[in-house]
Specification:
The complex is a heterodimer of chains A (163) and B (155). By secondary structure, chain A is mainly α. Among the domains of chain A are: 55 residues; 44 residues, no CATH class. Chain A is 52% helix and 10% strand. Chain A is built from 6 helices and 3 strands. In chain A, strand 2 and strand 3 form a beta hairpin. In chain A, helix 1 packs across helix 3 and helix 2 crosses helix 3. The radius of gyration of chain A is 49 Å and the shape is elongated. Chain B has one domain. In chain B, 32% of the residues are buried. In chain B, strand 2, helix 2 and strand 3 form a beta-alpha-beta unit. Chain B has 2 helices and 9 strands. Chain B starts with a helix and ends with a strand. Classes of the chains: A mainly alpha (163), B alpha+beta (155). Chains A and B meet through helix 5, strand 1, strand 2, strand 3 and helix 6 of A and helix 1, strand 7 and strand 8 of B.
C-alpha cells in the first residue's frame, strides 16, 4: 500500500523532471516495463493539458477601463528627461599635455602672475573731510576724483590761506 | 603611458618658458634711480576748469581728453606746471592759486608704481598708487568762476 503513493509521487516527479539522474533512470526503467505505470503517466499528461486549457480560458476580466472612468482626473506630471550629456571628447594624452604646457608658457610670458600686470585701482583710501566725493574714473589711463565743494566767500579763502 | 605624457608636458613647458623669458624685461622700479638713493620724479599740473568760454589751453589738451567725458566745462587752462624730485618719505608742497597747499609724500615705490600720500588742504587727503603714465586727477576746489584741478604724475 505504501508503494503506490510513493510510485505516484515518483511518477509526478519524473514527469516534472524533478528527479535525480540516477532515480530518473530507475523510474524510467520501471515505466518502460510496467504498462500500468505508463497508463498512469499518460493520464497525468492528459490532466496537465486540461488544466492548462482551463487556465488559459479563465482569464481575469479587464476592469481597468471601468475603474479609470471613476478615478478623479489629475494631470500626469511630465517625465523628467535626463539632462543632456554631450559625449566626452576623447583626445590623446599628448594633446592635453601640450595644451597644459602652452597655458603655462603663456602665463609666464605675459607675467600675469608675476606682478607685471597693470594696476587698475589706484585709490587706497580717501578722506574728503565730510564733503561729497566721487571717483569719476579709475582705470588704466587715469584716476579722476572730484570733491563737491560750494564756492567760498573771499574772506573764507583768505582765512584758509592764512591758516 | 602616463609617465611619458607627464615627461612630455614638462619638456614642452620648459621649452615654452625658455622661449618666453626674453619677452619679460625686468626693468628698474618706477621712478627709482640708484638703489641706495631713491629719488622719485613727479609732475604736478594745476588746471582751471571754467564754465566760461575760453577754449582749451594747448598744454592742457592731454588732460582735456581724459576729463571731457566726465566733467562739463567750457575752458581749460594750465595755471601751473611743476617738476619735482622727491625722496621717499619726503614731503613736497605746491602752492595753489587759492592760497592752499597741495602736499604729497611718496611712501613706497615698486614695480607697480609709487604709493603717495596726498593732502590737499581743505579738500581731501588719501593714499594713492600711481603707476607710471597714469595720472591722478583731483578736482573740485572752487576757484574764480570755476574749479581747480590738480594732476599728479609719477615719471
Amino acid at each position: 500500500m505504501s508503494q503506490k503513493p510513493q510510485s505516484e509521487q515518483e511518477l509526478h516527479a519524473y514527469r516534472d523532471g524533478e528527479l535525480s539522474p540516477w532515480r530518473r533512470f530507475w523510474v524510467g526503467r520501471r515505466v518502460a516495463r510496467d504498462p500500468r505505470a505508463r497508463r498512469e503517466l499518460a493520464s497525468l499528461d492528459t490532466l496537465g493539458a486540461l488544466l492548462r486549457e482551463q487556465a488559459e480560458g479563465a482569464r481575469a476580466p479587464d476592469l481597468w477601463s471601468s475603474i479609470q472612468a471613476r478615478l478623479p482626473y489629475a494631470e500626469r506630471p511630465a517625465p523628467l528627461h535626463e539632462a543632456f550629456r554631450p559625449p566626452t571628447p576623447r583626445a590623446p594624452a599628448w594633446a592635453g599635455a601640450a595644451l597644459a604646457s602652452a597655458v603655462v608658457a603663456l602665463v609666464v610670458a605675459t607675467g600675469v602672475l608675476s606682478g607685471d600686470a597693470p594696476v587698475v585701482a589706484s585709490v587706497r583710501w580717501l578722506d574728503a573731510k565730510g564733503k561729497p566725493v566721487m571717483v569719476l574714473r579709475d582705470d588704466r589711463k587715469a584716476t579722476i576724483i572730484w570733491v563737491i565743494q560750494k564756492p567760498k566767500q573771499a574772506t573764507e579763502v583768505l582765512r584758509d590761506a592764512m591758516a | 603611458m602616463r609617465w611619458r605624457s607627464a615627461a612630455l608636458a614638462l619638456l614642452l613647458g620648459a621649452a615654452f618658458a625658455a622661449a618666453a623669458q626674453p619677452l619679460v624685461e625686468p626693468g628698474p622700479p618706477v621712478g627709482i634711480g640708484k638703489p641706495g638713493k631713491p629719488r622719485l620724479d613727479f609732475a604736478v599740473t594745476v588746471l582751471h576748469a571754467s564754465p566760461s568760454p575760453g577754449g582749451i589751453d594747448p598744454a592742457a589738451r592731454r588732460f582735456d581728453r581724459l576729463l571731457r567725458s566726465s566733467l562739463r566745462y567750457e575752458s581749460l587752462r594750465v595755471v601751473k606746471a611743476k617738476q619735482r624730485h622727491v625722496k621717499l618719505n619726503e614731503i613736497e608742497r605746491v602752492s595753489l592759486p587759492t592760497g592752499a597747499d597741495f602736499r604729497f609724500r611718496p611712501i613706497d615705490a615698486g614695480d607697480r608704481g609709487v604709493l603717495v600720500a596726498i593732502d590737499w588742504r581743505n579738500t581731501a587727503r588719501g593714499d594713492f598708487r600711481l603707476p607710471r603714465g597714469k595720472p591722478l586727477i583731483l578736482g573740485g576746489q572752487p576757484y574764480e568762476d570755476g574749479q581747480l584741478v590738480v594732476i599728479l604724475e609719477a615719471e
